[in-house]
């Protein structure tokens, strides 16, 4: 425990910053682009045509911001997994070290007792025993006994040597893992800082975008554009599904778990705006929370989509697909196979959302169906 505390203290003491020049240049470029758009909006805000152009440019910039966040968030998630894995390995090595150290103590004590016994028994010279007219049979028995003790000592010495070698190997592995742990902790601190910067840049872009959507008409227009974008993705997914005829489809109704824990914020079929209705459900959940595949299948879409942010679509076979939107980052790529309950993404606010959550759809042969028919609490 003392060693671990000392090592953890050394992590903080040994913190160094690594160069982030390439990433910083990209962030500076997007910040400069945002300032240029802001200036144009302030000058031409009354002109509808110009406002629409600025909106499109801001949506394009928002896409870049959210893709940058997704990249960093994916690294953060991987680092967390690595840290957990190394902590587990160190704990296992610590247990093994304790066991080997106890074994070494026992083996040293056994060998010490054997050497003491041999010393007390004294030296038994074969020729002297013959001159003393001892029975040859007795002599053979004594020699056999001493040979047995000698072999036992040799075996004990070899066992002790093996234990010492294993202890040295465990110590080396502990040092290597601790060095890697130190490096990962520093990387995690840098990644967290980078993630904050990217989220701050996104918020600035989103604020300007919301300024161009002040009227209900503009908002409805955006929803219609987003619906059209989603429709195209579904059509692409239907074409891709034809290449996966061997999948089993979804389980019986209400036997699947929801993809993430949280409160249903907007239900299937509820009014969104005007005549636009929700074709899925929105689940309020903490940013960074795991999103799991509701069933096994194959990823047929994994990319940023206007209005829905980072989106992942899984083909489950027999015409069934599930869609997961507003993710912070995607942990799977198109073409990947997934199993039921496997983490495929993290909850986020992408797609211009102000609050974190998951947009979730289930479709059968392209038609949206109520996810509550298949998922249960």
From TrEMBL:
Keywords: Coiled coil, Signal
Signal peptide: 1-24
InterPro entries recorded: Cell_wall_metabolism_enzyme (IPR050570), Dup_hybrid_motif (IPR011055), M23ase_b-sheet_dom (IPR016047)
GO molecular function, one term: metalloendopeptidase activity
Keyword Coiled coil: yes
Domain called M23ase beta-sheet core: residue spans: 277-371
Pfam families xrefs: Peptidase_M23
Coiled-coil ranges from the UniProt annotation: 27-54, 206-240
PANTHER family: MUREIN HYDROLASE ACTIVATOR ENVC, PEPTIDASE-RELATED
Protein name: Peptidase M23B
Originating organism: Shewanella piezotolerans (strain WP3 / JCM 13877)
Lineage, highest ranks first: Bacteria, Pseudomonadati, Pseudomonadota, Gammaproteobacteria, Alteromonadales
